[in-house]
Specification:
Blueprint lengths: L12 H7 L2 H12 L3 H10 L6 H9 L7 H14 L28 H4 L3 H10 L8 E12 L5 E12 L4 E9 L10 E4 L4 E7 L5 E12 L4 E9 L7 E6 L3 E10 L7 E7 L7 E6 L6 E9 L2 E8 L2
Parallel strand pairs: 1-9
Antiparallel strand pairs: 1-2, 2-7, 3-6, 4-7, 5-6, 8-13, 9-12, 10-11, 10-13
Helix pairs in contact: 1-2
């Protein structure tokens, strides 16, 4: 999938003011002026504009973008405070950007809408009626992605804590959509903790599969179940991992672990209304000393979020 580009923050102020993006230009202007966020907040308050230091921090790091009329007005005043030309920052805002997954009515959305795959996903869901139903609430989802030395998503380990929305639930249907070039026939789904693999169906033309994860028991309404499973797919190079949600999730944790022989040039978080849409960057992510990067979100709304990266 395509990734957005970012102007290097070391470029001269005049250049980033011309080309953006907004958060890089704002950060460069703040650095050039030498004012702290507390001071900027105070100066804005003197003009009758209340903007928190958290919002200012989010703006300059690309986690959110000014969108409301009051926020746009604050950017105009910031231009004056920071000594940059009028409209230099405002003009970089462009159209409203996604701050996270857009809220949609999950009960009415089909898997192919949020997860992508179109007709191919619909065909697979015809074989798994449960895939279209909202049978469980996901209280916690933790995903660990292992990137091998060939830049491939070799292992994907998912742990889920779910709660039955009604009695008699005994399975969870997991969907997997590989990157372009994925050989879906070579992808394997393995049972982890407290589940067994039931039927697995693969599309014969698209890199998509659905897998039944059997609990081995029938849950009562409101009963919870903790289980895990693994997907092995070392068939295609990747530049990110996105997760689609058809219904709200209380907590989502995504960690990507890179092989030391294949480290990215940079990493970032992204959001999408649907996995098939272009990525909207929501912030830079730092690679740890152990070559990992992670994203932690609570109260995740329907849509898609993930971690992307650029290769050197």
């Amino acid at each position: 999938m395509a990734t957005a580009t970012r102007t290097d923050q070391t470029h001269p102020l005049a250049e980033v003011l011309r080309h953006g993006p907004f958060h890089v230009a704002l950060r460069a202007a703040i650095d050039a002026r030498g004012l702290g966020l507390d001071r900027l907040q105070h100066r804005l308050a003197e003009r009758g504009l209340r903007v928190s230091t958290t919002s200012l921090s989010y703006w300059q790091h690309g986690r959110t973008q000014p969108e409301k009329p009051n926020s746009i007005a604050a950017v105009g005043v910031l231009e004056e405070i920071l000594g940059v030309p009028a409209n230099a920052l405002v003009s970089l805002l462009g159209p409203r950007r996604a701050r996270g997954p857009r809220t949609i009515r999950a009960e009415r959305e089909r898997p192919e809408v949020v997860l992508g795959g179109g007709a191919a996903m619909r065909e697979l869901c015809d074989e798994f009626p449960a895939a279209r139903e909202h049978r469980v609430d996901v209280l916690s989802e933790q995903v660990t992605v292992y990137i091998d030395a060939e830049r491939r998503e070799s292992r994907l380990v998912t742990a889920l804590l779910v709660r039955a929305r009604r009695g008699g639930i005994d399975r969870y249907v997991a969907a997997y959509r590989g990157d372009p070039g994925c050989e879906i026939d070579r992808v394997r789904v393995l049972a982890g903790r407290d589940c067994e693999i039931g039927r697995v169906v693969r599309h014969d033309q698209r890199p998509i599969l659905l897998a039944e994860l059997m609990f081995g028991q029938h849950l009562a309404e409101g009963e919870t179940h903790l289980f895990s499973y693994e997907v092995n797919d070392a068939t295609a190079e990747t530049t990110g991992h996105g997760r689609g949600f058809r219904a709200p999730v209380d907590q989502f944790i995504l960690q990507v672990r890179f092989d030391p022989a294949a480290l990215p040039a940079r990493c970032y978080s992204f959001a999408q209304a649907k996995l098939a849409k272009n990525r909207h960057e929501t912030g830079d992510l730092a690679l740890s000393a152990r070559h990992t990067v992670q994203l932690v979100e609570t109260n995740v709304q329907p849509g898609a979020i993930g971690i992307g990266w650029d290769w050197p």
